[in-house]
User: What shape does this take?
Amino acid sequence: MRSRLFRWLLSLAATAAASCVPAPAAVAGGNAEPVVKMSFPNDSPVLPVSFTMGSTTGRVRGTSLAMDLHASVKLRNTGTKTISGLTIRVSAQDITPSGQGSVTVPSLNVRPGEVFPVRVDLELLRPFNAPPPKGSMVQVTLDCALFEDLTAYGPDRLNSRHMLTVYELQARRDRQYFAKLVQGNRWADIREELNFGLEDLTPVQFGLELLHDGRHTASGKALPIHAVTFPSAPVTAVGGAAHVAGNEVGAPEVQVRNGSKKLVRGLDMGWIIRDEHGRDYVAGSTAAELQLAPVQAESVKESGTFRFSRPQGQPMLIEELTAYVNDVQFGDGSVWIPSRSDIKAATSDVYLRRALGASPEQQRLAEIYRKRGIEGLVEELKRFN
Amino acid sequence: MRGHPGRGELALYPRRDLAWRRRFALWRHLRGCATCRAETAGFERSARETKDLAGKASLPFSEADWQHLEREMLGNIKVGVAAARCIENVGRGRFAFRTGYLLAALAVLFVLGWMTHIPLATDQRIVGAIRTAFAKRSGPPGPELAATGDSIGVESQGTALRLMHPRAAAVSLAGSSSLAARYVDEDSGQVTITKVYAQ
Assistant: This one.
């Protein structure tokens, strides 16, 4: 009895001591390596100018230590071309190679010699019995830098060059669109497109899990997948089906047809889900690599199970699924994205239209309009022209 | 002690069946009262004679008599136990019937209440949760991606990497093995897109 009490007091003291340990000192890598290490090649077009670690904390969570790391880095464009976008890769030793992260900053427009900031805020969870790390716990490296002429630099391990290219094409499309609205003095249209300068206080959010643990929802009902078609799309989604059980979507499959005269080697399939209240959400997109010759049709399948939930955690029941082709990569390297008129013609649902056309650049311009008004927007558009 | 004690007390005195105070008081009285002393002696004599007669009147029991008595006693005991068993379950069956009836009525009430008050969507959620909990894994557990209110993360074998974002970030699928969160950085005004990948 006394020995049991003594053991309990000892474990309580150990837990209290562990919760007070400052994270970097407690979990510094071997040989006093920094917790977060940045490494850029010498010939990289961007090089760090300064690197600061913000407040770093550690706390006990069950049988693991959770560390909050906040890093802020200033990068300088040391090349000769303007950088349109950048992706840096964040990898943690404990979870590599099965997991990693990235931070992408599109719509940069950083000229040679200019400096721009990038923030990395992350949380690491390590079990107490994990072996001590060899070297730094977190490595930050450059994955891809996209230039103004759509050439790129970097190992591109995360296929980020393609996404940066899509973001840049969307940004150019939207800047041209708003520039035309400004030239035509269509201020009402601008205000409507940019949400009237109002901050979106209730962003559409939902919880999302991707499971690849072999669990499947084969017992769920087979739900047909509807297709949204853009008029000028070279590849169209014809239809498909998925297994849906409550809030889980398993093994969705969509048939696509190449209506162009060029070879298609990849596409991004966008997904729209409708919940039990009839509300639509743009769930995101999944990439598919394929070799689709002109006029050819093929099925695009997704492995794994998608589980949706509300922000508070309640399951979100899926009533309907819709797919659309978000972008297409051709064999010659060129990329197709839907134009503004394509998006307008695809659906009459105003909310869905806004979600389909919500590019990072539109979001950035909306923020500029909200903070600096129409003058700030015009000034920003002139920067690119 | 005033007067004379009662005849009952005088009868109990020789048998020592009185409290000690009363006995002491009677003893003092009998020392000075010949009448009461004579009566007490008479009661003592009668008690002795009765005892002698009782001793003479005791009946001798033989071994056969004891066996007969034993059999009678055992028989009486068995009859009593059997009678007790007969009345043991009287009323119990009725009680069990009432309890079962009550439980069945409560179950019907619960089911009717569930059907009329709980939305079908909740039924589906519960069924979905149960199905998920008992779903068989057809392979080893792999890394899992999850989005919460302020982060997107990848977890594998107890370790996790989560990229934090403001609550207003828009979270979405970014591939069959990745999640993305998009927001505008308040300090720089840049759109920032964080992603986590499971491989």
User: Anything to note?
Assistant: Chain B touches chain A through 65 residues (CB under 8 Å). The first helix of chain B runs from residue 7 to 12. The mean pLDDT of chain B is 82. Chain B is about 55% helix and 20% strand.
